[in-house]
């Protein structure tokens, strides 16, 4: 391949290099999953700093979850070992929190105001929404201050731009003028947060908001084996928001495995299928090798528990899965919808941390040990709650080292997904929403049923287009193996119900699927059972 540009950009393909080395001005990267958007973004920042002499402190990189921000920071550190610490990398909420901390007095807030997710917000507390809304108010009312922030961060980068909501969009436009250097990356087909107020229209009208913006499309997917990518492309096609979408596999595996589709008789049967398949893949104590030719050449992939994710639409589906995995002795970590600080035990420990000394981990241990039985009883807690809380905090504490401020900020602003430890040798259980942006060698996507995917509540219409995008996000998390499954009977809304397979499955060509299981209910009409064959 022809070598253009500097060594820094050599690990990018031609289009990624164009996107990473562009001159100043606004830029939109419209690209599908696994095309290297995050990779391009980190190389762009490294290029600006290392090659063009841009000051790291003038770069602000924003994502949506702490885990994504942590990954960005790690990758930037690898590219710019000496300068990465000077970059401002965070989530929308940590950005808002930083601005509020600098101007807390304007809102009559104490310097050490706390963030709460609780319903009633007492003095000195700020809600998650206010972390964005108050800075928007502040900067809208004070253009001089807005100018100061614009001068502080002339280079702004936003990943997953398709999931920006109105308040976040307003904050961005206050921080970045129309002729500014906003580098926005995203994929409209992965817009899955409409239910929380996100609106893909901000992505689609980027060229109007930033009239000088250039657009780059990336089309080569480096993540997934060809059958997985083909299945995903077929699944999104009927609802794609991207005109003329091209997503080609960069990988050339010699003999790639088809996408598994297991028809279970019940949710217990489905959970058994997940357990059996994991046992086959990991094969006892020694890790099992999967042949996997990467684009860069044939390599052998070791499958450990950490390489495996089980994705589902609703948290309720996790229960039978967790039980089956734990019965089989398979280590798991699960993400719940709650924030860590929703746990009373975590709150009790967090309150003590500023008064102790030592590393974050040591402070947590000391705080847990120091909670007297009287304090616990007063807070309506038991010793077990405190024990569960240290465990929950451990991965975070490892990341934060000596930086208590980071821990407290992350605790207050993040969701529990971010507490997952990507290095732990455990199978990861995640909702589809929480899986966005992540990748795993082996992915199980369970509950592919009409009613669950698309999700439908009794008497309510489902947002079929958004549900299809969610299905697409799930399929495209997989690198080497993808196992889909659906159960003919499942406990939902207080009773056992029969659910037909997801209509999204029928968009996938049968030649890409390896079907197993015979669990389709006998009472179902024959044509519905065989629709996918
Ligand atoms: P998503 O939409 O799911 O967030 P993405 O576009 O951000 O995906 P990345 O996570 O940046 O994609 O990249 C996907 C995978 O492909 C990563 O493992 C990355 O290292 C790899 N990759 C990206 N570009 C290249 C390249 N030019 N050469 C080799 N590997 C690459
Ligand atoms: Mg990404």
UniProtKB/TrEMBL annotation:
Top-tier EC class: isomerase
Source species, domain of life: Bacteria
A GO term, aspect molecular function: ATP binding
This enzyme's EC code(s): 5.6.2.4
Binding locations of ATP: 31-38
Catalyses which reaction(s): ATP + H2O = ADP + phosphate + H(+); Couples ATP hydrolysis with the unwinding of duplex DNA by translocating in the 3'-5' direction
Protein name: DNA 3'-5' helicase
Organism expressing this protein natively: Longispora fulva
